[in-house]
């Protein structure tokens, strides 16, 4: 049977601290402590030892000390008057092996010490308290809040004895309840049964579907009788919405705002129709122009999934999925602030971006107001993707690449293992590399693109940032 801490003046913890203080060798504070294996042969590591010889006494390395594993738990037990005793609750305290191991690894980094303790399956000191506990063991400080004082051992022993007595009494009572080997039947308390029924009937809600969580009393909304809380009927707010919509429309008219699309005033006024509102909104959105080259890695089929989700799909595969029919304009959601884009938090320009692949599409986005002064849609172009071929820019507002990339941010996308197109070396472009096989690197490439685009837009066209 392993030795445990006792209430004597010299227990395991005191013996270890006294031996360290009396060591004449300051380099090795454990010089006065001898580690012995099962054959009483000296060893160098506590993990190889089965006992230690200190101060003329021999202790098993599983001997429980008065050093608690958590000073907070010990303080809580002390405040409640229920102190633990090493004999009754050995798992609450460190044993001699854990203490000696921590002393032997006192110069190790926290990570190396924790790994060593975990490998040996020995309790380790908390990282935040490790230095203070070592100072206490080495005699550099007189006390530590996580140590059960010798004066407390007697009260802890009394408490543990009382607990054992209660357990014995309960066992005796259970035995007495058995008469002639037949256990007495459990008697149900009628008052408890009524109380449980009342609680379940009044407060308990049995959830069966997601709609059950939204149930409520419908009497105030529909004018009907209240629906039972345990009913499976789902609340319908349609009547409430219809009764409130008239008030909303009246408030809009009072504020001078146009009524919703489809109402009589908006239908009779051109420019205020649903299509007119969409056209006006699009006139404020930034534009990104892709290369229409068949060798481009990003096209109208895969650009949305790449920039929004951070997932690259091969151009031909994306074309097949869409059955060869691409949208004339692709809308990209660019989140900013606390949002995440392409795997990077807080990256984006905070508004929708329109993506096209030709100069004609850019002109169409300008609408009928494109000829008005200051309404050139090319002023909203913030990025142009290129494969390094100058013919792409023949129909652009700026046909010369160097001039073009002074007014927009150039983006050059290539495979990570292919050489760079020599043309782009003289162009002011941001390079984005895509790995052929490692799809987990796509988010990193997309994050790089959004950071560069956000920085460029803030410096050159801050009016396009939401």
Protein described:
By secondary structure, this protein is an alpha/beta fold. It has 3 domains: 12-155, no CATH class; 247-280, no CATH class; 283-464, Rossmann fold. It has helices at 12-21, 71-79, 96-104, 110-120, 130-137, 150-177, 190-202, 219-222, 238-254, 264-268, 274-282, 303-309, 315-321, 359-366, 401-407, 442-460, and strands at 34-36, 42-43, 51-54, 57-60, 64-68, 93-95, 178-179, 182-183, 287-289, 330-333, 340-341, 344-345, 352-356, 381-386, 409-415, 429-434. The longest helix has 28 residues, at 150-177. Residues 1-9, 217-234, 264-276 and 337-345 have low confidence and may be disordered.
Largest sheet: 6 strands, mixed
> Mind telling me the CATH superfamily name of the largest domain?
RNA polymerase II accessory factor, Cdc73 C-terminal domain
Give the uncertain stretches in residue-range form: 1-9, 217-234, 264-276, 337-345
Question: Mind telling me the CATH class of the largest domain?
Answer: Alpha Beta
Keywords:
single chain; 466 residues; alpha/beta; Rossmann fold; six-stranded mixed beta sheet; 37% helix; 13% strand; disordered N terminus; nucleus; CDC73_C_sf; RNA polymerase II complex binding; Cdc73/Parafibromin; Putative RNA Pol II elongation accessory factor
Task: Describe the secondary structure blueprint for this structure.
Elements: H1 12-21, E1 34-36, E2 42-43, E3 51-54, E4 57-60, E5 64-68, H2 71-79, E6 93-95, H3 96-104, H4 110-120, H5 130-137, H6 150-177, E7 178-179, E8 182-183, H7 190-202, H8 219-222, H9 238-254, H10 264-268, H11 274-282, E9 287-289, H12 303-309, H13 315-321, E10 330-333, E11 340-341, E12 344-345, E13 352-356, H14 359-366, E14 381-386, H15 401-407, E15 409-415, E16 429-434, H16 442-460
